[in-house]
UniProtKB/TrEMBL annotation:
UniProt superkingdom: Eukaryota
Protein's UniProt name: Fibulin-1
Reported function: Incorporated into fibronectin-containing matrix fibers. May play a role in cell adhesion and migration along protein fibers within the extracellular matrix (ECM). Could be important for certain developmental processes and contribute to the supramolecular organization of ECM architecture, in particular to those of basement membranes.
Pfam families noted in UniProt: cEGF, EGF_CA, Fibulin_C
GO cellular component: extracellular region
Subcellular localization: Secreted, Extracellular space, Extracellular matrix
Residue ranges of domain EGF-like in the record: 307-348, 391-430, 431-474
Subunit note: Homomultimerizes and interacts with various extracellular matrix components.
Chief place of localization: secreted
Origin organism lineage: Eukaryota, Metazoa, Chordata, Craniata, Vertebrata
Length: 655
């Protein structure tokens, strides 16, 4: 109303009208500088200040008796703005005065936290302000909105009890505005962003999260000696030597004192009509004299110019060449290989290599002072005339490790048999490892041994001997040479790389035949049937003969087609009479490991022959017995059968 100020809160007494006047003045200042929610109502009539419910901040006089002002904290800040002491008694009462003084004392611009009004206040002031507002606004921990609703400052949130406030962790909620490369750190009521990467040597991190250069010279953290001055640079500092030079000198970057040319450094150091002459550490002024032209000099009296004899002296003006003095000048008579330059007036060297290119030297020309020098490219030597080049026989100096052939301007190295020229220098001969060549595995039957410039072959330690060609290995027939160890009751059978002592006995009702064997490429023992009288079963048995033969096979390195190993010859003609209706059937009864063998029937010389073939490779050493049958069939019935047992010994070698 216009006559009084009403409030819902208890008044804070004002004891003097002077306090009211000060508050009215501060009210104007606070209204122009701040925007607050709570107000203090000052009544001139009742000398009281009242806390009014939240209104828009305004300052006005009501009938010259009632003034509305911003809250006590803002009054303290306004007092500081006006230069008043913070302990100025405004008679605001204990609580309002405590807040006013705290906000007045806290006037620094970089305060730690901010209130809901947008101004930053420190934690101590906040604590006083919050305690005061809590007392003034009832049970609310921070702010009271309206008559019964509690609210919290920015950076806080209301607890479930509706009165207390707790800090909001902006970092955890992702509500910070930290940039890339910055780490969010939560604080009470706020947060701050801190760089993740340190600033580095010579820099420090500011409150604004930026890197600032450290002035080592100002902070005294430099290590310059007393004779040097510290000069700060970005991220570091420099030590510069102090100027210790006297007058007429200046100190260079290395700390040395150098003379100052005052005649150039100063503007007209001498009086008009005088000549400035620089001296070490100073200068002198001399009176101007007659200026003689080129080729003349001033006489001792200083009043006349005389000719200069440039040809006098040990060197003269022509530097060792002929010199002729002229009035005010001179002329040089140059030696051979030089030419006189009329502009520079000196004898200059003639570059014969450039003037007579390709005409004075056969290969290379090098200019020297007053002459020239010829030289030859590699592989040639200078001829006696000093200009032409003759071929150099490099082979005379034996540059090659073995054989040398001179060619025009160069040479070629050759190697003897068993060696090859090095790809690195083309001079040395390297041994050829014949055993390591792509065909090295076929040079020797068994093992190849490299030697400097050659190689030699060896055979297994036993059972073989080196052939006359020096490469192949030949089997030693121990049975023929008598080097076997078979007993008298055993028969010696030669195999590749060794021998076997075997003893064969004929089965019952069979006896050993004395006729010659009919199986080629083997040693054979043949047993024929010999029945006892009246032995019907023996007579009816179709097997007429049982033979044992021994063959030796190598380990085939490359197996591309069947290998014929045994021939079974018969007495049957290839073209028998049709009336006989007879045939011969060959069969493998036992021992065909992995079906490595087969038998085919063939006609040779008009007779039927059974050929045993090896159809798969066998890797030795390996022993096996192949049991074969020759069946004589007449009218579809086997009339008789011959059994052949082939004892096969496979060597571990391919030869």
């Amino acid at each position: 109303s216009s006559g009084s100020c009403t409030t819902l809160y208890a008044p804070i007494p004002l004891h003097t009208m002077a306090s009211v006047k000060v508050l009215e003045a501060l009210c104007q200042v606070s209204h122009s500088s701040f925007a607050q929610e709570n107000e203090v109502v000052v009544s001139a009539a009742s000398n009281t200040s009242l806390l009014d419910p939240p209104l828009n901040c305004r300052c006005r006089l009501i009938a010259l008796r009632c003034a509305m002002c911003c809250d006590c904290c803002l009054l303290g800040r306004a007092a500081r703005e006006q230069g008043l002491t913070c302990d100025h008694s405004l008679s605001l009462g204990y609580q309002c005065g405590l807040v006013s003084r705290a906000c007045c004392d806290d006037g620094a611009p970089d305060l730690e936290t901010s209130n809901s009004l947008g101004k930053r206040i420190n934690s101590k002031t906040r604590e006083v302000l919050m305690r005061w507002r809590s007392q003034a606004s009832g049970a609310c921990a921070q702010e009271c909105v309206g008559n019964s609703t509690c609210a919290c400052f920015k950076g806080y949130k209301l607890k479930p009890d509706g009165k207390s406030c707790e800090d909001i962790n902006e970092c955890l909620l992702g509500a910070s505005n930290c940039r890339g490369g910055e780490h969010c750190i939560n604080t009470v009521g706020s947060f701050r962003c801190q760089r993740e990467v340190s600033c580095g040597t010579g820099y420090e991190l500011t409150d604004s999260n930026n890197c600032k250069d450290i002035d080592e010279c100002e902070s005294g953290t430099h290590n310059c000696s007393p004779d040097f001055e510290c000069q700060n640079t970005q991220g570091s500092f420099r030590c510069l030597p102090k100027n210790q030079c006297g007058d007429g000198y200046i100190q260079d970057a290395m700390g040395s004192c150098i003379d100052i040319n005052e005649c150039l450094a100063q503007t007209e150091p001498c009086h008009p009509g005088q000549l400035c002459v620089n001296t070490v550490g100073s200068f002198t002024c001399q009176r101007n004299s007659i200026n003689c032209g080129r080729g003349y000099h001033l006489n001792d009296g200083g009043n006349r110019c005389l000719d200069i004899d440039e040809c006098k002296g040990p060197d003269g003006a022509c530097a060792g060449h002929g010199c002729i003095n002229l009035v005010g000048s001179f002329r040089c008579e140059c030696k051979a290989g030089f030419i006189f330059n009329s502009i520079s007036r000196v004898c200059e060297d003639i570059n014969e290599c450039r003037h007579y290119s390709g005409r004075i030297c056969a290969h290379k020309c090098e200019n020297v002072l007053g002459s020239y020098k010829c030289s030859c490219t590699q592989g040639f030597k200078l001829a006696s005339d000093g200009r032409n080049c003759d071929d150099l026989n490099e082979c005379e100096s034996s540059p090659c490790s073995q054989e040398c052939a001179n060619v025009y301007g160069s040479y070629q190295c050759y190697c003897r048999r068993g060696y090859q020229l090095s790809d690195i220098d083309g001079i040395n001969c390297e041994d050829i490892d014949e055993c390591a060549l792509p065909t090295g595995g076929h040079i020797c039957s068994y093992r190849c041994n490299n030697t400097p410039g050659s190689f030699y072959c060896t055979c297994p330690a036993t059972g073989y001997t080196l052939a006359p060609n020096g490469r192949s290995c030949q089997d030693v027939d121990e049975c023929v040479t008598g080097t076997h160890t078979c007993s008298e009751t055993q028969s010696c059978f030669n195999v590749q790389g060794g021998f076997r002592c075997l003893s064969f006995e004929c089965p019952p009702n069979y006896r050993q035949a004395g006729e010659m064997a009919r199986v080629e490429r083997s040693d054979t023992i043949r047993c024929v049937k010999s029945c006892q009288p009246n032995d019907i079963s023996c007579v009816l048995d179709p097997v007429h003969s049982v033979s044992h033969t021994v063959i030796s096979l190598p380990t085939f390195r490359e197996f591309t087609k069947p290998e014929e190993i045994v021939f079974l010859r018969t007495m049957s003609p290839a073209h028998s009479s049709p009336q006989l209706s007879s045939d011969i059937v060959f069969d493998i009864l036992e021992g065909n490991v992995q079906n490595s063998f087969d038998i085919v029937k063939r006609q040779e010389h008009g007779m039927i022959v059974g050929v045993v073939r090896q159809v798969k490779p066998l890797i030795g050493s390996l022993n096996m017995v192949l049991k074969l049958a020759m069946n004589y069939v007449t009218s579809g019935v086997v009339s008789h059968r011959n059994i052949v047992n082939v004892h096969i010994f496979v060597s571990e070698f391919w030869f």
